[in-house]
């Protein structure tokens, strides 16, 4: 660490001072200095990540589980942040106080202008003469503390970079690598946790916190502020806990519950944050509750969520269609590239339309995995999987390092010990209200109940991570949000290191079996069981009850998916020609690829091999008769050729 | 395209105007607007890339060769740029003219301050009252034309992004995927072209141009400016022409010459640009030639080039050592990640030390391919290859689209038709002086001469591309550089579309055989020939002459590489135990991995299978006796264990 600080120091102090150069070259110098500072900033994080990678390797090799990789990244980040802060000298930026030119009114009296133009008398050093030059300055932010501007250039990033560059691959990868089998099996429970649970958590955390902050009048926290904090802190992080679960091979249902909840609640938390902001807008920071505004905020939340969902999933479907109906798979590079760009564009479209890109990119990832993946060439499948895995790893570790570094280098921190303690209590209360009452209600309807031990684990594994931090740092206007940022950063660090580190102990303490069975092996067993059971039909033709009962909605959707969505979007069988009513035949032929018809049932696109098996819903749900499909298919192929030629 | 413009328009016009919100929320709004504009900008390019990918696929499918993918990207870019410019309404940014507060002196009288702080009276709308708030504004640039500031926010990127994000993967990939066999065989010729050729091209282009611009006094071009232009335009682009060569399967030596030259001359051009800038600094824009300054500039050039080379290659070697001596290959994800981060850090370290990162990353790529690649796990090899291929593809097409778009949206263009014509003539003259006289001299020393037809192709394939544009846009201070940027952009577009499009016609016209033999097949033949020849030693023990004679330096280096560098940095045989003198045995044992000793000669790390065969220098050069290596190795293993235990 000290080495790094020395390096940073050395680089910083190398700043050449060109005393006798004319202004143009000075300007070059300025641009060059900015470039150097940028490079050093990125370098610090790159070196940090390299060290983290090496250390992760060392930990993995020794099978040390008391500290997870994200914990390592945070701790490294803290060390580097401290050394940057205390060891390196401060590079001061120069500033000048200016006032508007006489008799000029603001372009918009309610907000500062985007740019200011200032005319300065610059000394041309060679001959000592002076000349007037005009410079443009861009809006940066409101000034609360002139002195603290000094450290700003060091190791701080534009929050925009988080949202536009770092977060999308993490969230997309979560969707793309979702273990859909157990996810869909527990869909109802997961949705309940994510939607109702996160809302409950947000309101409980906010309310409990509000009671505490009434004792802290100097912070001027309104109830809205507390709710805002409740929303950002309700976004739990899938990264740390899931990596631990994966290493330990815990029960697959527990895994699915924690994973599903932590993925979806990011999306819900973002929705809540924007709903609360829009409520604030409408109610003009009023502290009293306004029904109309609240309703508007909630309708806004559903509107944003639904639209983002639509954009994400339709982008996924469009990609599936492109890869299905073009022979793009002959060029895996182009194919992977298109896949990457389409996925990213779902994020951008949603952001550009002022929806939430994170929600869009999550559902885009799920659709891509569910449909497009089946159309990709073997090389592209591997390439996309590996690419997103790598991007996810780098982005994740970068965020956690950054959280660590920014604890020291970010200037907008505002520590308030009482507030932090209050926040911890409120967060625990919110999490408890999410887990225990909801699970009690859910258990009333579930055939396989969620045992109390699992509930404790779910409670405990609500770590806070990247998303909470990103939401907190996105908006740092005013004292309240500085306090929130500090508290969120601190909560993230504590939860990742302390909770993340002790979760394996907890699992042992609660006697939850770990490492007993291989995940994939277990899946295989279950699939075989199910298949065996689906053969055992009762004499009336009714299938026997399977161990996992699915909700009516899930069953309906599955049926619709296999009969219409999959045949439409992928090369899978049965084709639309077989599933659509006969009146739609021309359309069905148009939407069926020749590949779909020419493959025989042993080919890679049958249901056993494609991503659909991940869904792991038993065969008995699927009412379509498959026995004669081969003969039907050859007949269909003849028809198809006939239709196409026509 | 119209659709895109409508989309952009729609998004832009959706800007909500919050009339009655307090200032804090206005500020939120401002941040949100900036975020939206960012998203739309990136979205425009993403959509552009998606369209380009689809069109490339269509072209590849029809085997259309008259227009290359980069040409497509440029044309698409031009169309989108035009529609953004003419179809979408201008979003005006608000600005305010300000003056320094009374009695305040500039922090530095010779240059503008980094930030200005302005106090404004902002109206709090709900009650109509006003309050004073301070805002910070960051330096953006010199103002030459207030009116034109309007379009600035549209579809323009920070040039920093080019240099820090887009260029490194392209250059790294060039080094990493370098076909080293033919590259090393023609090393002398390539180096001559790159170092002397580029310098000649720069000076000839600059001088010819200077004669022309004497007729254009209003542009105020000095000789230095002309040289600067000569340097940036001397960076030829490997992308387009090589893709065409690869598709057409031209002669491997021609391929190697064009590839090697265009890769290395980027590095040389960057060096020349910074040398010319430093000459300018020293000579204070004097038009007369100053020997001391020129010498200083040239020593500076060599210093920068050598240091960048050192940083790049030592980063590569460090990565090789890490991958050799740790068992990181058990975790391919960590391994690939480390590989990626180390490679990027070579760029950043060089940039942070004010050297040229591009040179560093190029040689880092070559070292990574030559050493580290051999230590990687099979999965990581594939993953890194595919990753860089993808990044390269996206980055490349992005740059070419951007060149197209920026022709319309970038505000600093300054068209001067006469200058453009003059530049074209000078560039052709410079290129001709690079190719023909140098090749004549080189042919004196070469056994296999470069035929005249090849020389014409080399002359013609000096397309200008990403690097020239990046160098031009990096610095746009003053009228001269605006003219240079415009001319460079135009040259790039013309050369990519016209020259890139007609190169296959030229090859046919010059009767250069294309597609006759498969590259890899040819390599195999040559390798087999060489192996056969190396067996045929003359009675004196002297090897027979091989068809490709190598320079003395190359032979020496190769010998050193195989005896010391490869055993030290990779798992390859012979080990250092066998090659180092006996006095260094403890060191040799320390630096030899057990894997190196335990593998037998048929293992994957033998010279036939690793990347070393790419070097394709025949066996006869290698004076190390290999006959008894197996028995030696087992003896060495025993010693090794002994040393390690000690």
Question: What is the strand and helix layout of this fold?
Answer:
2 copies of one chain form a homodimer.
Chain A: H1 2-13, H2 23-61, H3 69-87, E1 95-100, E2 115-124, E3 129-142, H4 159-176, H5 180-185, H6 187-213, H7 223-233, H8 239-248, H9 252-283, H10 291-325, H11 332-352, H12 357-375, H13 378-409, H14 417-445, H15 452-460, H16 466-474, H17 479-509, H18 519-535, H19 552-569, H20 576-579, H21 585-590, H22 594-598, H23 629-645
Helix pairs in contact in A: 1-2, 1-3, 2-3, 2-13, 3-13, 3-17, 4-11, 4-12, 4-13, 4-16, 6-7, 6-9, 6-14, 7-9, 7-17, 8-17, 9-10, 10-11, 10-12, 11-12, 11-13, 14-15, 14-17, 16-17
Pfam family, one (chains A, B): Na_H_Exchanger
Signal peptide (chains A, B): 1-19
Keywords (chains A, B): Antiport, Cell membrane, Endosome, Ion transport, Membrane, Signal, Sodium, Sodium transport, Transmembrane, Transmembrane helix, Transport
Characterization of the model:
The radius of gyration of chain A is 28 Å and the shape is globular. Helix content of chain A is 66%, strand content 5%. Chain A has 646 residues and is mostly helical. Chain A folds into four domains: 94 residues, no CATH class; 27 residues, no CATH class; 351 residues, Up-down Bundle (Na+/H+ antiporter like fold); 127 residues, no CATH class. At the A-B interface, helix 2, strand 1, strand 2, strand 3 and helix 4 of A face helix 2, strand 1, strand 2, strand 3 and helix 4 of B. Strand 2 of chain A pairs parallel with strand 1 of chain B, so a sheet runs across the interface. Chains A, B: InterPro entries: Cation/H_exchanger_CPA1, Cation/H_exchanger_TM, NaH_exchanger, NHE-6/7/9. Chains A, B: It comes from Galendromus occidentalis. Chains A, B: Keywords: Antiport, Cell membrane, Endosome, Ion transport, Membrane, Signal, Sodium, Sodium transport, Transmembrane, Transmembrane helix, Transport.
